[in-house]
Amino acid sequence: MHEEVVARVRHKLVEGEIPPGARVPERELCAALGISRTPLREALKVLAAEGLVVLLPNRGARAARLTRESVQDLFEVCEGLEALAGELACQRISDQQVAEIAALHASMLAHYRAGDLIPYYRCNRLIHEGIVRAADNTVLSSLYESVAARIRRARFITPMTPERWTLAVQEHEAILNALLRRDGGGLAHILRTHLRHKRAEVERAGFAETEESQASQPAGARRLSSA
Amino acid sequence: MHEEVVARVRHKLVEGEIPPGARVPERELCAALGISRTPLREALKVLAAEGLVVLLPNRGARAARLTRESVQDLFEVCEGLEALAGELACQRISDQQVAEIAALHASMLAHYRAGDLIPYYRCNRLIHEGIVRAADNTVLSSLYESVAARIRRARFITPMTPERWTLAVQEHEAILNALLRRDGGGLAHILRTHLRHKRAEVERAGFAETEESQASQPAGARRLSSA
DNA sequence: TCAACGCATTTTGAATGCAAAAATCCGGTA
DNA sequence: TACCGGATTTTTGCATTCAAAATGCGTTGA
C-alpha cells in the first residue's frame, strides 16, 4: 500500500494536478486517498528524496519548483543517462526488443501524421523507456525514471510547435536507425541532440514566473553559492 | 530531525555496520537512536528509494545485497555520471576549485607514499566529489552521491593491492592534468578508465556468497527476465 | 519418528493522540 | 486607516496504540 500511495501522489505531481510550487495539502490528500497521515507522510518523504517535493521544516511540503537552473540540471543529467542507455542498449538489445521499439516508432509516426499529440507523447515516452530498459541496468532505469518524471512536469509550459514536432520525428528516425545498426556511439549522439533540442524548446518557452503557484518560495541564487 | 535519522542509518549501511543482506532491526535502531518507530520507518522508506535497503511486505527491511549484477549496474551508471561530471566540470570549474583539488591530490599522494590507506581513501573520495561539485549541477550531485554510497559498501570485500594502488595514483595524476588543461573529453575518458579498473578489481575480488548475512534472500535471475 | 496442525508471541503496518511550532485572526494604538 | 502585538486556530512532527500478518513452538496423530 505504501508504494500505491507514493505512485498516486507522484502521479498528481507529474501530471500537474499539484502544480510546481504549490503546497501539498496533507489533510486533503489523506481524505482523498482514504488513508491516515502516517503513510502519506512516508510517501512525501520518499518523493522529497526523489526531488519532486521540497520539505520545509515545520512548514510542510511543497511541490518542487521548476526553476531555470533545476530544469537545466535535469536536462544535462538526462542527456548523460540517455546517452549511456543508448550505448548499453546497442550492446544488449534483443531483436525482439528492437522490433517492439520499431513498432512503437511506427505508431508514433501514425499519430504524428494524424496530429494526435497525446498518443504521440505516449509512444515517444515508451520508445525512450524501451531504450533504457534495453540497457538492462536497474540502477540506470530507476535514475532515468526519476529524472524523466521531473522533466515531464515541464511539458505543460512548453507548447509543441509544428517545426519542433517535425524535427523531433526526424530525430526519432535517426534514433531507430542507429538502434537497428546497433550503433551505440551514434545512438548516444542522436539522443543527446534530441534532448538538447527539447531542452532549448523548454528554455525558450520560459517557465517559472508564469505560474501563480510559484509564489512564496524565494528564488534561490544557487549559481552564486559555492561549497 | 528526519534528515538526521536518515543520515545516521545510511551511515550504518554504508560503513558496513549493517552488512548487505542483514535484517534492519527496527526495535534496536529505535532504542539506539532514541526515537520511536515512526521517524525510523520514514527513514527506511527513503533509504529503500535510494536503493540501500529492500522493503519486504510484512516482513521488514533488509540491507540491500551486493550482487554481481547490482554492482555491475552501479559501476556502469557511476561511469556515466562521473564522465558527465568531468565534461561539465571542465567548463565550469573555477581556478580556486582546481587549486583545492590539486591540494587534495597532493595530500592524497603523501598518504599513498606513507601507506596510509584510510586517509588516502578520504582524499580520493573528496577529489571525486570535488569534480562532481564543480560540475555545478545539483541533480547530478545527488544522483552521484546515491550511487557512490552504494558502491562504497563494496570496499569491505575488495582488498587494496599494491599494484592497483600504484595504478590508481597514476590515473589520478592524469585526472588532475586533464582538469588543469580543462580537457573535458580527456577527463571524462580517464575517469571512465579509472572506474573500470576499480570495477574490475571489485569483480575479481568476488563478493556475495561470502557473507553469512547474504542468506535468506533468494538470488534473483534478473538478467533472464524481460519486461 | 516425523509431519502437520493450532496456539501464543513477535513483528509489521497504519490510525490516533498529543505537544510544539506556524499561521491566522482580532483588537488596540498611533 | 495602517500597523503592531497577542491570543486562537491550524498544522506539523513524533509517540503511542491497535489490528493484522508472520514467526516460533508445542502438541497430536499417523
Brief sketch in words of this structure:
With 227 residues, chain A is mainly alpha-helical. The first copy, chain A, contains nine helices and two strands, in the order H-H-H-E-E-H-H-H-H-H-H. In chain A, a hairpin with a 5-residue loop joins strand 1 and strand 2.
Write the layout of secondary structure elements.
The structure is a homodimer of 227-residue chains.
Chain A: H1 2-14, H2 26-33, H3 37-50, E1 53-55, E2 61-63, H4 68-92, H5 95-114, H6 117-134, H7 138-152, H8 162-180, H9 184-205
Antiparallel strand pairs in A: 1-2
The first copy, chain A, binds a DNA duplex (30 and 30 nucleotides) through residues 1-2, 26-27, 35-39, 41, 57-60.
Structure, explained:
The structure is a homodimer of 227-residue chains. Chain A has 227 residues and is mainly α. Chain A is 68% helix and 3% strand. The first copy, chain A, contains 9 helices and 2 strands; from the N terminus they run αααββαααααα. In chain A, strands 1-2 form a two-stranded antiparallel ribbon. In chain A, a hairpin with a 5-residue loop joins strand 1 and strand 2. In chain A, helix 4 runs antiparallel to helix 9. The radius of gyration of chain A is 19 Å and the shape is globular. The relative contact order of chain A is 0.15. At the A-B interface, helix 3, helix 4 and helix 7 of A face helix 3, helix 4 and helix 7 of B. Chain A binds a DNA duplex (30 and 30 nucleotides) through helix 3.
